Amino acid sequence: MDKAYFSSGDIIADRRADYARMLADGGDYAAAAELMAQALDMAPDWAAGWDLLGTYHERAGQVAAAISAWRRLEALDDEGVFGAQLKLAAHDAGPAGDGTAVSYVEALFDQYAPQFEQSLLGKLGYRVPEILDRMVEEEMARLGVALFDKALDLGCGTGLMGEKLRAKVGFLEGIDISAAMIAETARKGIYDSLQKAELVAALNARRADADLMTAADVLIYCGALPPVLAALVPALKAGGLVAFSLEAHDGDEAVFLRPSLRYAHGVDATRDALVVAGLDILRFETAILRFDRGAPVTGILVVARKPALELTAANDAEAGGDVAA
């Protein structure tokens, strides 16, 4: 069930909430918020209702009222399914927390799964799998790689990236936080293996078992990049490639949370994080990833390589020679 439509348990409150949704669908967010507040007078412990009230206030430009609603939501939503902490952080009203907001992201994509492809491809002009696939193909040709033994498609979703990778990979594994997304992609028969797991936890359980990893529009939900790379690099074989996308910003901050509740990463900070993680940057490009409410979303697209064993050994030997000298 859509988390936004959980019943309050009060028929009259539910009816007023339904009218509020109709007003919101028509663009009258101030009136929707007023009616939603009346519904919450009858059902004051209804978490989904406070989430809707905050959203209506926000879209009506009533930010202070939205923050107040989300503070009430935060107190009611013990599991963090509605992302109140993120919503407050995006409006400078609290900390975002560390890493992925697991419960929120899982619930978001469980809800989104049935219409995911229609929305992304039909309405938002989503191009990330296509662009990353082209970049990977070009690097395969340059490096003389005919086929990857094993690839991990992180945040595989409904398999849009996996469809591009399938012919390039002997064994293709998909990992996603959402059971509904896993179910959608399982029907396609793209992957040799599918696992429901949070990305960093899944990577921490592995050691050097993949020669390609992809993350198409996934790390935008993970916050800071260095902890992700710290889990990813040990799970990648020597000489293996990683290809991923981020939303980009031009400021000095390494990462910040947008009102969309997706993280944007600084261009320079991303380059630095890759170098510190020990990866060789093969490709580093910016491009329009998709559109959001009619506005283009600019992103960073990366292909990087974990140094091959031969190169690592040579560097170690050179360093040892310098010390001996």
Automatic annotation (TrEMBL):
Pfam families associated with the record: Methyltransf_12
Domain of life: Bacteria
Domain Methyltransferase type: 152-241
Family annotation (SUPFAM superfamilies): S-adenosyl-L-methionine-dependent methyltransferases (SSF53335), TPR-like (SSF48452)
InterPro entries membership: Methyltransf_12 (IPR013217), SAM-dependent_MTases_sf (IPR029063), TPR-like_helical_dom_sf (IPR011990)
Cross-referenced CDD domains: AdoMet_MTases (cd02440)
Protein name: Methyltransferase type 12 domain-containing protein
